[in-house]
Write a structure and sequence with these properties.
- By secondary structure, the chain is α/β, with parallel strands linked by helices.
- The protein has a single domain, classed as Rossmann fold (3-Layer(aba) Sandwich).
- It has helices at 15-32, 48-57, 74-77, 108-118, and strands spanning 8-13, 39-44, 63-71, 82-86, 96-104, 124-132, 145-149, 155-156, 172-175.
- The radius of gyration is 16 Å and the shape is globular.
- The structure holds inosinic acid and magnesium ion (MG).
- Magnesium ion binds at residues 43, 46, 101-102.
């Protein structure tokens, strides 16, 4: 077992449950894109494990590209402004783009990304997020697939971090509160 497990207060979603749900999402997404060749747009870094597992379940040919964004911080958060740290390698005009996210919290990141990407005229733009915290939503974003709705707790693992740690845990866990202090 992973050494850092002692920092986990509770396992919220087990490895088995994650893998089963990703398989299900893969089937639904493959059906939705039948006859097409979507571009999976992974938002770094939290979505990398989800992306890697999701890709392996897809039965349609697909490409991947990456974007890295960061929030401007509390002062400008309500405006929904995010900073692009890394843009896509290729234009998305005319492509069927599927944004692959780790978690939707306030919704600001995805709302901003969606607007930015729609301006680039993709053929279609859909969103899959592994996790969603509905209680925290500040802006509405149309999400096509949600893996799990979770309570308002800070979670780590399966790609999600706290201060760049715990991304390697194979499950979704709740971080012990004393770790924040
Ligand atoms: P939003 O713009 O508030 O929806 O923030 C989404 C981003 O915040 C996610 O892509 C994550 O990087 C981060 N985030 C939100 N909640 C959590 C959490 O519980 N654990 C780890 N990262 C989180
Ligand atoms: Mg993220």
């Amino acid at each position: 077992m992973k050494q850092l497990q002692s920092d986990v207060a509770e396992v919220l979603i087990t490895e088995e449950a994650l893998q089963a749900r990703v398989q299900e999402l893969g089937r639904e997404i493959s059906a939705a894109y039948a006859g097409k060749e979507p571009l999976l747009l992974s938002v770094l870094k939290g979505s990398i494990l989800f992306l890697a597992d999701l890709m392996r379940t897809l039965t349609v040919p697909h490409a991947v590209d990456f974007m890295a964004v960061s929030s401007y911080g509390a002062a400008t958060e309500s405006s929904g402004v995010v900073r692009i740290l890394k843009d896509l390698d290729e234009p998305i005009e005319g492509k069927d783009v599927l944004i692959v996210e780790d978690i939707i919290d306030s919704g600001h990141t995805l709302a901003y990304l969606r607007k930015l990407l729609l301006a680039r005229n993709p053929a279609s733009l859909r969103i899959v997020t592994l996790l969603s915290k509905p209680a925290r939503r500040e802006v509405d974003v149309p999400v096509d697939w949600v893996g799990f709705e979770i309570p308002d707790k800070f979670v780590i693992g399966y790609g999600l971090d706290y201060a760049e740690r715990y991304r390697d845990l194979p499950y979704i866990g709740v971080l012990k509160e004393h770790i924040y202090e």
